[in-house]
UniProtKB/TrEMBL annotation:
Ranges where the Transposase DDE domain occurs: 382-505
Name of the molecule in the record: IS1182 family transposase
Residue ranges constituting the Transposase InsH N-terminal domain according to the UniProt record: 22-111
Organism annotation: Mucilaginibacter robiniae
PANTHER family named in the record: TRANSPOSASE, TRANSPOSASE DDE DOMAIN-CONTAINING PROTEIN
Lineage top rank: taxon: Bacteria
Amino acid sequence: MGGKIVFKEYDPDQLTFLPYKLEELVPTGHPVRIVKQVVDAVDVKPINRKYKGGGASSSHPRLMLKLLVYGYLTNTYSSRKLEEQAAQNVHFMWLLGMKKPDHNTINRFRSEKLSGVLKQIFSQIVLLLEQEGIVSLKEAVFTDGTKIESAANKYTFVWGKNIKANKDKMKAQLDELWGYAQSIAAEELKDTAPLEYSEINPEKVKETISKINAALDDKEDVDKKVKQKLNYAKKHWPESLARYDEQEKLLAGRNSMSKTDPDATFMRMKEDHMLNGQLKPAYNLQISTQEQFILNYTLHQTSTDYQTLSSHIEQYQALYKDLPKAIVADAGYGSDENYGVLARKGIEAYIKYNTFDKEQKDGIKAFSNDSLHYNEAENYLVCPIGQWMAHIGNGQRVTSSGFVQLISLYRAQNCEGCPMRGVCHTTQGNRVVEINHSLRQHKQAAKERLNTEQGINLRKRRPADVEPVFAQLKHNHGFRRFLLKGMSKAEVEIGLLSIAHNLRKWKT
C-alpha cells in the first residue's frame, strides 16, 4: 500500500504580503536584458528628429524601440499582439517600466518615426559588435538574397506589357476611326493629322475623338458601329489612359506591380506552398553577413540578384564609411557590371560566374566562345582547327539595368569544308562570334581567385554563413510575409528583424 499523497500548498485567493518586484522575475542574462542594455547604449537622436514640438506628450522613442526590437526577437510582429504583451507579459512589463502603449501608437511609431532612420540605429549596433571583436567590417562578407512576400493581395496584378498592349490596341482603333472619318469627311479633317503613338494621352485622345465626331456630325449614313465605338471611346478611353499613365509612373520601368502595394513587384517564390513557383507580389531582400551576423541589408524591387549588388555596396559604404576587403557570393551576382564595380572599389570578388561550377567539373565546353584562344597583342581569335578569326568590328549591348557592354566581333576566314563544321557552328557562311573582353578578363580573374586556397575556403564558408540566417528569419521565426505595405515600411520591418537577429545571436 502506497504512502499518503501530499500536494504543495496552493491558495490562489491568498494575497502576498508584499507585491513582487518585476526585477526579481527577470533572470540574469535573459534576452530582454540584452535588448535594454543595447538600446540604452545607442543614440536615438535620428528618431527624435522625426517628432514635431507641441501637442500632447509622446511615448519615449527609446521605450518604443525596445518594445519593437524585443517584439521581433520573440516573433511578436503584430501591433495588437505587442499591445497585449505590454499589458500581460512580465518581460515586456519590466522592459517598458509598466508603460502600455496602444496598438495605434505602436503602428505609427513603426511606420512613421522609424522610416528612413532605422538603418542608422542598426549600424550603431553593428559597430558595437565590431568593438567587441565579434565581427570586422574590413574583412570578407557573405552576400545573398531571398524574396519575401508583400502584404499586398496576391491577385492584384498590373503588368507593364498589358498596359502597352492596351495602348497599342487603342492606337490601332483610333487610326481605324480616323481613316473611316477621312473617307467620308476628308474636307473637314484636311488640316489635321492622326495621332502619333507618343501622343496617346488622355487630352490628345479626347481632342481627336471630338474632331472625328464633329467631322461626322452632319454626315448621313454614318456606320452605326462607328458611332457606338466613338461613344464608347469618348466615355472610357481618356479615363483608361489616365489610369495607364499613373500605373506606368508607379511601375518606373518594372514589368509588374500590385494594385494594393505599388512598390511590390511580382516575383517567383521558391517557398510557395503549391511548390509550383507561383508569382506573388514581393521584395528582394539582400543581406551581407559575417559569422552569421547581419552587417548590411537592402530591399529591392527587382527579382534578379545581380542588379542589386551595386546599391547594396553603396549603402554599406554610407553606413560605415568603409568597405569590406572581399565579397563572397554565388553565380547570381557574376556579371560584367558587378565585377567592374568591385574592382573599382578595391574589393576582391569571390563571385562565381554562371558556368564556373560546370567548368570545374567538365572543363570548358569545346567549341564555345570561351574555348577560343585570344591573341591580345594582335587582336584576333584562333578557331578550333587553328584558323585565325579576324576582328571585324565592335558593338554595344545594354543590359536590363542600363549597363552598356562593349562587344567585339570576330569572323573565321573559311569554314567551307571544315571537318569540325557540324559541331563548331551550324549557321550559313563563316562563323562569327561576339566577345565581351571586359567580362572575359573578369571571369579569368575570378576563376583564378576562386581556386586559390583562400578562395576555396571562402566558397566553403559562404553557404554556412549567409544561408542559415535566411533559415532563421523565415523558418525559425516565421517571417515569410511583410505586415506593412510600401517599400519604406517594409524596410523598417527588415531593420527590426535584423537588429533582433543580431541581438539574439550576440548573447546566446
